[in-house]
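Cross-check.
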Amino acid sequence: MIGRLRGVLLEKQAPDLLLEVAGVGYEVQMPLTSFYHLPAIGGETVIYTHFVVREDAQLLYGFINPSERALFRQLIKANGVGPKLALTILSGMTAQQFVRCVQLDDVSTLVKLPGVGKKTAERLVVEMRDRLKDWGGAPSTPLTDALLIQGDEAMFNLEQTAEQDASSALVSLGYSPLQAEKAVQKVKQPDMSSEQLIKAALRSMM
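Predicted model, tokenized:
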């Protein structure tokens, strides 16, 4: 079992990243609420991981702290929830927000997540209530500072790439291309990074 990795961030394209550890590159999928806290390319980071072995693949899921990983592990135990849906849920809201939805029986918020219908949301609330009654959760990690790029042409290219990256990330989480494009266009502002666009787009759809 691979439970923790410390290394240099080589690539990141939400929700995927490539982390070099002792000369080995690990491909990891990460919920967007954790992805926001990653450093810039070339920076060192520590992530907590959950290793999934399937007949056709071996997958690593990464988290910014142990409490988010713990919630992910509880989610995939729920009936009808696999790693992909758990990743989507934790991309649409923080661990603390999900726990609050369960505690308040807030089905209406959960059904706004792609792949979560009313029956699934109701089942999650029922199944997770006892598991999360003593949930504490870890404090959030501060967001990394955005990098500023000067020059009109460079900024234009950055904006285009950020919008495309944000749309691609939302599609990978289960939103349709049209939903993703509309959400990104609705919230975009000059100089926003892809992470900021993703976060704002998710908030607007929730």
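DSSP finds nine helices and five strands in the chain. Residues 138-160 have pLDDT under 50 and may be disordered. Passed to J.P. for a second look.
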